[in-house]
Each structure stands twice: as C-alpha cells, then as structure tokens.
C-alpha cells in the first residue's frame, strides 16, 4: 500500500507583546490575526500596539509577510517602529 502524501501546513508566525508594568488592576488584551498584546499600563499597552501596527505596515510596504521575514530584519523594523 502506498501512503498518502503529507500535506504541508502553511507557515505561520505570531508576535506576542507582554507588558509587565500594570499597577492599576486593568487587564488589557489586544488581539489580531498575527499579533497579541497582553498586559502593561495604559501607556505601555498603547505603545506596544502602535509599534506592532507600524511594524505590519512596514512589512506590507516591503511586500513581506511575518512568517517569511528574517529575524534580524524584523528586529530592525520593530526598533524603527517603536515610538520614542
């Protein structure tokens, strides 16, 4: 008997941001298809969300997807996308 060919799973990737500086008791969670932001103060959570959104805009402009970008390039994009 011949084995059925294996189906390859499509590559996937997901960014996870975790904020640890919440002291106000609020539980913050922002989810999208390719990222999740959890926790943090209101300011930190907002900055992380803004950073990730800008990161995905840059990837789109470059015609790349998260699962296909090299880690070094992704780190550079995130660094440039982080609000000062």
From TrEMBL:
Give the top-rank taxon of the lineage listed in the UniProt record for this protein.
Bacteria
Q: What is the name of this protein?
A: Uncharacterized protein
Q: What is the lineage of its organism?
A: Bacteria, Pseudomonadati, Verrucomicrobiota, Opitutia, Opitutales
């Amino acid at each position: 008997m011949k084995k059925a060919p294996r189906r390859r799973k499509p590559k996937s990737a997901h960014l996870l941001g975790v904020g640890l500086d919440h002291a106000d008791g609020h539980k913050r969670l922002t989810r999208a298809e390719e990222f999740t932001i959890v926790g943090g103060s209101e300011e930190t959570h907002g900055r992380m969300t803004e950073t990730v959104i800008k990161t995905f805009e840059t990837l789109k402009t470059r015609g790349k997807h998260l699962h296909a970008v090299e880690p070094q390039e992704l780190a550079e994009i995130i660094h440039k996308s982080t609000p000062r």
